[in-house]
Amino acid sequence: MAHRLQIRLLTWDVKDTLLRLRQPVGEEYATKARAHGLEVEAATLGRAFRQAYRTQSHSFPNYGLSQGLTSRRWWLDVVSQTFHLAGVPDAQAVAPIAEQLYEDFCKPGTWQVLEGAEATLRGCRKRGLRLAVVSNFDQRLEGILRGLGLREHFDFVLTSEAAGWPKPDPRIFHEALRLARVDPAVAAHIGDSYHCDYKGSQAVGMRSFLVVGPEPLDPAVKGSIPQECLLPSLSHLLPALDRLQGSLLEL
Ligand SMILES: [Mg+2]
Question: Which positions are tagged coiled coil (predicted)?
Answer without folding.
Answer: none
